[in-house]
TrEMBL record:
<dbReference type="InterPro" id="IPR049470">
    <property type="entry name" value="TRM61_C"/>
</dbReference>
<feature type="binding site">
    <location>
        <position position="169"/>
    </location>
    <ligand>
        <name>S-adenosyl-L-methionine</name>
    </ligand>
</feature>
<protein>
    <recommendedName>
        <fullName>tRNA (adenine(58)-N(1))-methyltransferase</fullName>
        <ecNumber>2.1.1.220</ecNumber>
    </recommendedName>
</protein>
<keyword id="KW-0539">Nucleus</keyword>
<feature type="region of interest" description="Disordered">
    <location>
        <begin position="253"/>
        <end position="286"/>
    </location>
</feature>
<dbReference type="GO" id="GO:0031515">
    <property type="term" value="C:tRNA (m1A) methyltransferase complex"/>
</dbReference>
<feature type="binding site">
    <location>
        <begin position="120"/>
        <end position="123"/>
    </location>
    <ligand>
        <name>S-adenosyl-L-methionine</name>
    </ligand>
</feature>
<comment type="similarity">
    <text>Belongs to the class I-like SAM-binding methyltransferase superfamily. TRM61 family.</text>
</comment>
<dbReference type="Pfam" id="PF08704">
    <property type="entry name" value="GCD14"/>
</dbReference>
<feature type="compositionally biased region" description="Polar residues">
    <location>
        <begin position="273"/>
        <end position="286"/>
    </location>
</feature>
<feature type="domain" description="tRNA (adenine(58)-N(1))-methyltransferase catalytic subunit TRM61 C-terminal">
    <location>
        <begin position="70"/>
        <end position="308"/>
    </location>
</feature>
<dbReference type="GO" id="GO:0030488">
    <property type="term" value="P:tRNA methylation"/>
</dbReference>
<feature type="binding site">
    <location>
        <position position="189"/>
    </location>
    <ligand>
        <name>S-adenosyl-L-methionine</name>
    </ligand>
</feature>
<feature type="binding site">
    <location>
        <position position="141"/>
    </location>
    <ligand>
        <name>S-adenosyl-L-methionine</name>
    </ligand>
</feature>
<dbReference type="GO" id="GO:0005634">
    <property type="term" value="C:nucleus"/>
</dbReference>
<dbReference type="InterPro" id="IPR014816">
    <property type="entry name" value="tRNA_MeTrfase_Gcd14"/>
</dbReference>
<keyword id="KW-0808">Transferase</keyword>
Length: 314
């Protein structure tokens, strides 16, 4: 469970794996999968066969071995890891954008948040953790099948007490009136977010923050024009992150390095070399840690526009 709760709605994370739990099976940084633990089942991959029954009772983070000696790690399904393994029903937000949204919306435990649309639920899980244990996320999607799939994922990850999923066309109908004046933050991921701005402004508490995610700058411009009537401190960001791959690299240690010379002898013509042929070819294998930019670094995902609801003085 991502944010396990007891009956009193207090955090009580169970660090040991139980029957029915969702586990992130980690092979390497770019190879992970979500698995539901079930006695009698097993997982087969390139490292061998792993029996689920061997996982039960082990703490999350355990290194477990297959029948032929290969190993994987069993990790808890945090929102960060879930974003990397979930089924993509729509375009999703990734960790750089998600962390920026959670921070800029000023979310703390106890906040009430409105989200539209739900999509694949990538952001929803992080919003729920941010407002736990006493807050709540109300998320809406106009597509009934997507909403149903998201609801199933939230139940699977123990978030049902924190998230309510509803089917509703927010662009056409706006948010339900029951939320007016009692919401701490609103997040919009819609083709035409400006259509939902008037409804969002009625739902937000004074001085609360709205965020709109859009992939195109033309959407941002239109949304900002609409926001000016009721919001202030309007800002737009594009979050770009450069990832690096850390690897051990093997290199040959030359004879001059063995003698303590950091540079080595000056260049010489081959015929003038005084080193024995067999010694000049000696080399010792060493390791060095190298960092290089990932070749698959993610570029533009979208624009994040934030605005604060204006407080009307009387």
């Amino acid at each position: 469970m991502m944010v396990p709760l007891d009956e009193a709605n207090k955090l009580s994370f169970n660090r040991r794996i139980s029957d029915g739990d969702t586990v992130i099976v980690y092979e390497r940084h770019d190879s992970m999968r979500a698995v539901t633990v079930s006695p009698g089942s097993d997982l087969q991959n390139r490292f061998g066969v792993f029996k689920h029954s061997d996982w039960i009772g082990k703490p999350f983070g355990s290194k477990v071995f297959s029948t032929k000696g290969g190993f994987v790690f069993l990790l808890a399904p945090t929102p960060e890891l879930w974003t990397l393994v979930l089924s993509h029903r729509t375009q999703i937000l990734y960790l750089p954008d998600i962390s920026f949204v959670v921070s800029y919306l000023e979310l703390v435990p106890g906040c009430v948040v409105l989200e539209s649309g739900t999509g694949s639920g990538s952001l929803s899980t992080s919003l729920a953790r941010a407002v736990a244990p006493s807050g709540h996320l109300f998320t809406f999607d106009f597509h009934e099948q997507r909403a149903s799939s998201a609801r199933t994922d939230f139940e699977r990850n123990g978030l049902s007490n924190l998230i309510t999923v509803s089917v509703r066309d927010i662009q056409g109908e706006g948010f339900p009136k029951e939320h007016e004046g009692c919401v701490d933050a609103v997040f919009l991921d819609l083709p035409q977010p400006w259509l939902a701005v008037p409804s969002a402004s009625r739902c937000l508490k004074p001085d609360a923050v709205l965020c709109s995610f859009s992939p195109c700058i033309e959407q941002v411009q239109h949304t900002c024009e609409t926001l000016r009537s009721s919001f202030t401190d309007i800002r737009t960001f594009e979050v770009l992150v450069r990832s690096y791959e850390i690897k051990e690299h093997r290199f040959a240690k030359s004879v001059s390095e063995e003698d303590g010379s950091p540079v080595g002898p000056p260049p010489q013509k081959r015929k003038q070399s005084t080193l024995p042929a067999n010694k000049s070819e000696q080399a010792e294998s060493n390791f060095s840690v190298m960092a290089k930019p990932c070749s698959t670094a993610r570029g533009h995902t979208g624009y994040l526009t934030f605005a604060r609801l204006t407080v009307l003085s009387k």
